[in-house]
Every structure is written in C-alpha cells, then in structure tokens.
Amino acid sequence: MKIDLTDTTASKINNALVHGRRAIGTPTIGMVLTLVIVTDEEHAYDALKAANEASREHPSRKLVVIKRVSRSPRERAKARLDAEVRVGTSAGAGETVVLRLYGDVIDHAQSVVLPLLLPDAPVVVWWPVGSPVDPKQDPLGALGQRRVTDTYAAEDPLADLTARASRYTPGDTDLAWTRITPWRSMLAAALDQQHAPIVSAEVEGESYNPSAELLAMWLADRLGVPVERTVSDGPGLTAVRLETKNGPIVLDRPNGSLATLCMPGQPDRSVALQRRDTSELLAEELRRLDPDVIYESALKYGTDRLGAPAPEAADAPKAAEAKAAPAGADAGAKPAAPAKKAAGGGKKAAGK
User: Fold this and answer.
1) How far does Cα 217 stand from its chain's mean position?
2) Average pLDDT in the 313-336 region?
3) Cβ atoms of residues 30 and 63 within 8 Å
4) Taking every annotated instance into account, which residue ranges of this chain make up the domain Glucose-6-phosphate dehydrogenase assembly protein OpcA N-terminal (predicted)?
C-alpha cells in the first residue's frame, strides 16, 4: 500500500502510517530499529531496494531522506516536505517513508526525521553516497547509535580513510570494512592451523580500493609486521600473502568469486569468497549496534604506515592475537604494542 502526501508535516505522516497499518490488517508494530537513509534521487532506488532486502532479517522503519535542491532563488525560499508512505509488501519487512525536502527545510532535516523515529528503538543512519567526513557531527548522524558510510563511493577513498580516522567516534562504521569480513574470517582460520611466526604480509587489489587498504591496515595492526599494498586489475581484492617461517600462506581470488588457499604442508583448497551485494553488507552491519573496536584500531593505524619496517619480528602471541579477531568479533581490544616507525620502506600504498 502506498500513500502520497504533498506539502505535508510529520504529524500527517504518522497518521498515514497508522492508517496504512490498519488498512492492511497489521495494527501492531513489530520493528526492531529505525533505519535512516540519507541519499540523493539518483541513488534512492538502489539504496531502498537494498534496505528492503536487509529488512527481512531486521524488520525496521526505513526513512529515506532526499534533499531536492531547487534551481531558482524563489523556489529555494519555499520550504516544502513531500512524502511517500509505504506499508505491506512494497515496504519489505516493516514500513517505509520516502521524504523529499525542498527549500529551507533541507537545512533542518533532523527536525523532520525526529518525530518519525520509532520510540525506544535504536537508530541507524546510512549514507550510500555523499557521506560527511564526520558523521557524528552531522545533524542526522547525531540521531543514530550507529552511522554507516561507504568509503568506496568517495571521490578519493584514501584521503577519506585518513580523514575518518582523525574524526572517528564510537558507532561509526564503513561498508568498505564490512566487505572484508570473509577475508578476515578465512585468514584467521588459516592462522589457527599455523603456529610459525609471521614475518611479513602483502595485500593485492585494485587501486583506490578502500577495502584493500583496510585489510592491509588490519593485518599490520594486529600482527605487528610490515604489510605491502600492491595493485592488481581486480575485481576488488585479489590476493593476500602471509610470509611465515615455514613458508607462505596465500589466499588468492583472481575472479571475484572462487579463491584458492595455499598453506605449507597442506594441499591447496578451493574456498567460496563471493563478492557480496549491498543488502548483505547492510544486513551484517545491522546485526550488532555496539562500537566496532577492531575497525577503529585498523582505521587509526593509517595508510601512510603500510610497508613500514616492523619494530620487532612478529612472535607467536601476536599471531594468536590476529587469530582471536575474526570477522565481526570486536570484543577484546589488542594489547598495547610497541610504537611503530613512520613508513619508510616497502612499496607505496596504492593510489598514493
């Protein structure tokens, strides 16, 4: 069911939601969170489609905020709010409100969204594109317990990673980080079977790929070894190589779907490492709303330190530390490590 409202208010939108639920015979609310999607008209369809698919795992009220920039000064002076209220099958599992803001109301989007939030439910704010450098300081971002961005959509992903590291606030996260969850899981499982010290590492992927940079920073941060970032033709991440005292551990994915895991003393194995859709990434981020301390630590390591000489050879406790931080497991920040020197050796980070 779809209800169109022109030049409306938040009160009328809430009334339309109640009317829509009653009309389809579901007067009760069974949603677990509010997902605020801040996007433009061009990307609204794809973002809402991904959110609807993710809502099958996380029933939610989805508020899509689209800021419509007026062309003439006269139109910009007129404040107006249009809305589409969707309930039932067209809204996934939950409810959807598409908000189109015009004129001065664009500068006060939070005042439109605030009355539409579900009471006593967590709020997640997601920017598919055009995310602010400091999400917590954004008026809409300040409403959320979790703020989801995507550095992959930035014009300069590496500069964006650096800026986000300096402004990180607990609750910030990035779909570029979520994309490497299977890689981190696979590498952690591989290290569980190897007890030889890690000497160095190499991460291979497309240029200007923030997921490759984050994976390299995670390895360097957790293992305390130099990590080289090399460039390939893709797609996305293509390989990780860990040099150990017993020989290399290689996870190679040349085609974006099937990878080969090579380990010393074991036969090569094929493993599924499919590139995932946005809906799967979003659903993963909505599974937990507490701060991701492993992401914070990797992000703050810094792309400029990749390839730096290690302060000391990696030892067994550090290798065990990396194994203890599989994908999505943020509990237990790493112990303090000796200060690492600024980047001076090794290959240059991609795109720099």
Assistant:
1) 16
2) 40
3) no
4) 51-165
- Spell out the alpha helix ranges (H) of 252-343: 278-286, 293-301, 316-323
The arithmetic mean of pLDDT across residues 55-62, rounded, is 92
Q: Convert the pLDDT of each residue in 69-107 to its tens digit.
A: 877 666 666 789 999 999 887 777 889 999 999 988 998
The dihedral over CA atoms of 103, 104, 109, 111, expressed in degrees to the nearest 10, equals -130
Please state, as a whole number, how many other Cβ atoms lie within 10 Å of the Cβ of residue 326: 17
Cα–Cα distance for residue pair 214/30, rounded to 1 Å:
36
The architecture of the domain spanning 181-323 is 2-Layer Sandwich (3.30)
| pLDDT interval class at 175 (50, 70, 90) | very high
Residue with tokens 């996260």: 173
Interstrand relation of 94-102 and 198-205 (parallel, antiparallel or unpaired)? unpaired
| Other Cβ atoms within 10 Å of 118 Cβ, number | 17
Would you list the domain boundaries of the chain? 2-149, 181-323
- pTM reported for the whole predicted model: 0.82
Strand pairing class (269-272; 258-262): antiparallel
What angle (nearest 5°) sits at the alpha carbon of residue 148, between those of residues 53 and 48?
30
Within 8 A by CB and 6+ apart from 20, the residues are 1, 3, 85, 86, 87, 88, 95
* Model confidence band, residue 306 (pLDDT cutoffs 50, 70, 90): confident
Contact by Cβ (8 Å): 212, 199: no
